[in-house]
Amino acid sequence: MPVQCSSCACSRAVLKRPKTGHSLCKGCFFWAFEEETHRTITSARLFDRGETVAIGASGGKDSTVLAYVLKVLNERYDYGLNLLLLSVDEGITGYRDHSLEAVKRNQQQYDLPLKIVSYEELYGWTMDAIVKQVGVKNNCTFCGVFRRQALDRGAVMLNVDKICTGHNADDVAETVLMNVLRGDVARLNRCTAVSTAGGGSDGVVPRCKPLKYAYEKEIVLYAYFKKLHYFSTECVYSPNAYRGHARAFLKDLEAVRPSAIADVIHSGENLSLKEGVKMPVQGTCSRCGYISSQALCKSCVLLEGLNRGLPKLGIGKHHRLHGRILARQPLTPVEEEKMKTLEF
Amino acid sequence: MCQVEEEYSGPLEKTSLPTVSKKCMKCKESTAVLIIRVGDAFCRDCFREYFVHKFRAMLGKNRVIFPGEKVLLAVSGGPASSSMLTQVQEGLSRDAPKKLRFAPGIIYIDEGGACDQNAEEREKTLSQMEAIFRKTGFPYHIVSLEQVFSLPNSVLEPVSCGPERPGSSYKAAVDQYLQQKEVNQRQGQLATEEAQDAVAHLSVQASQVSPEHKQALEKLFSSLKTLTARQDMLQTLRQHLILHTARLNGYSKVMMGDSCTRLAIRLLSNISLGRGASLAVDTGFSDPRYGDVVIVRPMRDYSSKEIAFYNRLFGVRSLFISGLGTKTSDKASIQQLTESFVIKLQADFPSTVSTIYRTSEKLHTACPPQTSGAVAADKCLLCLCAVCNKADAASASHASLISERLSRGELGMEAKIDPASCCPSGTLDPFSCQREGQGCGEGGSCTAGRAPAPADLKSLLCYSCRLTVKDMAAEDTLPPYITSEAEKRWNRAQLKEEVREFLLEDEDEEVG
Ligand SMILES: [Zn+2]
Ligand SMILES: [Zn+2]
Ligand SMILES: [Zn+2]
Ligand SMILES: [Zn+2]
Ligand SMILES: [Zn+2]
Question: Where does this polypeptide localize (chain B) (predicted)?
């Protein structure tokens, strides 16, 4: 027997919402999904009229849906935003080709301007070249650190006011759990924020996550029923161990109680640190000016290692060497030897 | 998208087989019999000393238990609380080097009625527990879970925690205790411990549980649709019974036997249950939420492994009592899922438990309970933690509510945003949006003139307890002390609403 939509009570339901368990018709699901995103945007005052907003576009489902919904809402509620798509090309042969295709299709379909910035242009190194030097085992360090700044550097280049990313509720909940598992209280405290002001650890351009409360499963359903094309861009290299465990755990939690994803975020939003708990002091990188708790930011250290042919420089904790790197002094032969050997 | 945005940290510490050094690391003479952590090999005597010392150090460091104070030990029969019981016995014994100076009693909650145990099983467990308790010579209280159906409302009434005792008063209490003891000895009176033994035995046998209560309990637990909710409810009711017994018998402290392994599991499981705001009281050394009775957790520095070693080496008896979910898969509830997750991870990465545990020490409640004159309406009816309804429209709880209402068609497509009709002030809806002009109440459902639903229980609960009640088929299966206290708070709030315009300032309700 066909199930009726619990919202309009006249159409036939085509799906069961993963978030609430209600049966909805296509139209009511679209409306609910878009309306929820709209409320996330307005209640947290994510944007101001007239701003230029870059959507971090990877060609994956999250950013594809984000771009589509933002375009719809910008028109429906007259936000008055100039939206554009911003993509990063890491220079991994065969990896980005398809996803950049997907982004280009988004550009045409949604009629949004697209800007692609490449690692080569930003850092002078492609990921392929990095892998050659550091091996597959360690390159996720590079790809994560570089990507974080790449979006920001690209945004600065294009003179945009804000960046928004496709992080969804599952991503946020996963990060809460991961930070508990590794005892990272400072990040635990920050990771549920829906927006970060410029000058934070992510760069100089303010960022926000309009899909923060959207379940990953609903994003997939939305893309499916809207027939949006995306490329599954799981990173070709495995995520780090903590995140892998946190992700598997979250999936199990969701299976037991679907609200668990929102419940974990609620917990994260209501945690607070004891006064006097040491938070890392935020300073700026003395080479490139980005936020860094050390004299040199991670990406400058990584770059220095690559350029000197000492890739290990960026992979361990070698803060005591920063002074000499800054002064462009050579390392001792023993140190050099240590920084060279890498497991492949 | 590549998920490695966070800075990498070094490779996780993997278990490696410890190199067994044959000698004890402490005395360097005797042969080691166990290894707690990699490199920490102990002989039997040194391990005992280490274990006993840790218990007293924990109490000494925190200085919350006053000499002569009545302390209720919550013993479940499991390894950790059984071990705690022996530590207290040890510490009170005459020849103990740093003698403990409080007056202990024991409480055991018989949960058999909620866990499908038959009368025979329950009887057997009870007689075994009683045998253990009798040997200690401490007064003990055996309370069946069914007794929640005869609890008074007062359990849930907030008690303001008196003016905090300043550090100096600890010393004053010690002096007073010593003086009193001298007098007692001079007059040849019984020592406090023995005197109390005579008062004791408020024990209720399972056979004395009334059939109505037995049935009511079964109805309550079958009304809870998920194991997650059943386990949460059991925990809540257990706490209420312990609190009531403590008050009735003048205990001002309750000791729980939570190990650091248990607390790490609870921390993660409470995060998953939406209890983030209460993590500090739920997992800290002392838990002041009840005001006059303070919960302390002296076993929180021991891992479950250390406790198991100690119990085995020194013949501490513990009982395996089948509980809720014993016979189900480890993915049957949030709590069980978390437990098996942490234990599995701990087996691969031995720093898991201590890392999570350290997190708990850096947290405090986002909405700290008021230090004095706590207001009834500010505390969750069930867990008695501070309810922190920031009513922030930019929050997960508000977002979830919006999702619910959109899915039920309560916020229609044709609706226009009308800030004026959004959530009349004074609505008791904990989610009511207070930011003006943000269009929480689109459509008709949230508009003015809405008659409040009859005693909506959920509005009196914290986020997490609300989830538990949401998993309930019939709220009227709850014990009367809960439903009638809810009624009382609801009426009080309504009354306040009626006279609101005549009140000059938003005065806190007096405790009474
Ligand atoms: Zn519909
Ligand atoms: Zn990667
Ligand atoms: Zn830099
Ligand atoms: Zn020894
Ligand atoms: Zn509660």
Answer: Cytoplasm
